[in-house]
């Protein structure tokens, strides 16, 4: 029997607590893995530790435990940041997201995130959560041109053969390099 989207989200709780950088990276990986497509340039940016602190300062996320470099973020912060990035990528501005996040408490936030992600979560979570017993990701080395290579996470949309081909062609064009043929 397939796991529910809420159960798949809860699988991420075992990685908590995070520091700001770890939280941002974890959410970025999941959002990219489920293939949420951005609607504007601001939403394209993956969350960073700086963005996490910005969201806390502007009351989009709860305050972490501790302060400064010892601040730790919980599963609830994970859900809040995930919700912010999903809604941004759907075209919502920060003020609308703030109002929406204040209205959602407890398990309702988890259910709402699961609803927003829908069936894409079930397809993406096994690759997004972990690839081995240590919870690490497998990476694929892709040579783009002489002296230029990318490391792409297996299981991500860019990690498919079509995604790699598209990336390779786009980067070669951007670099002004063409294959000798």
Would you summarize the structure shown here?
With 181 residues, the chain is mostly helical. The protein folds into two domains: 5-128, Multidrug-efflux Transporter Regulator, Chain: A, Domain 2, CATH 1.10.1660; 139-175, no CATH class.
Features:
9 helices, Multidrug-efflux Transporter Regulator, Chain: A, Domain 2, single chain, 2 strands, mainly alpha, 2 domains, 181 residues
Structure in words:
- The protein folds into 2 domains: 5-128, Multidrug-efflux Transporter Regulator, Chain: A, Domain 2; 139-175, no CATH class.
- It has 9 helices and 2 strands.
- Helix 2 crosses helix 8 (119-129) and helix 5 (75-89) packs across helix 7.
- It has 181 residues and is mostly helical.
- Residues 124-134 have low confidence and may be disordered.
- The longest helix is centred in the N-terminal third of the chain and has 15 residues, at 20-34.
- The protein starts with a helix and ends in a 6-residue tail after the last helix.
- It has a two-stranded antiparallel ribbon.
- Strand 1 and strand 2 (148-153) form a beta hairpin.
- The protein is 53% helix and 7% strand.
Percent helix range: 40-55%
CATH architectural designation of the largest domain:
Orthogonal Bundle
Query: What is the topology, as strand order, of the major beta sheet?
Result: 1-2
Counting DSSP H or I runs of 4 or more residues, the number of helices is 9
What fold name goes in the CATH topology slot of the largest domain? Multidrug-efflux Transporter Regulator, Chain: A, Domain 2
The strand count comes to: 2
């Amino acid at each position: 029997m397939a796991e529910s989207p809420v159960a798949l989200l809860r699988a991420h709780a075992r990685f908590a607590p995070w520091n700001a950088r770890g939280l941002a990276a974890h959410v970025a990986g999941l959002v990219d893995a489920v293939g949420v497509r951005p609607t504007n340039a601001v939403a394209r940016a993956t969350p960073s530790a700086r963005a996490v602190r910005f969201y806390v300062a502007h009351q989009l996320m709860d305050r972490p435990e501790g302060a400064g470099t010892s601040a730790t973020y919980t599963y609830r912060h994970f859900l809040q940041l995930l919700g912010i990035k999903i809604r941004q990528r759907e075209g919502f501005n920060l003020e609308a997201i703030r109002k929406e996040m204040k209205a959602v408490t407890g398990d309702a936030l988890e259910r709402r995130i699961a609803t927003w992600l829908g069936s894409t979560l079930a397809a993406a979570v096994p690759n997004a959560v972990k690839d081995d017993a240590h919870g690490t990701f497998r990476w694929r080395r892709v040579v783009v041109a002489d002296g230029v290579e990318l490391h792409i996470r297996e299981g991500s949309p860019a990690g498919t053969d079509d995604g790699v081909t598209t990336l390779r062609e786009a980067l070669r064009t951007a670099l002004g390099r063409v294959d000798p043929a």
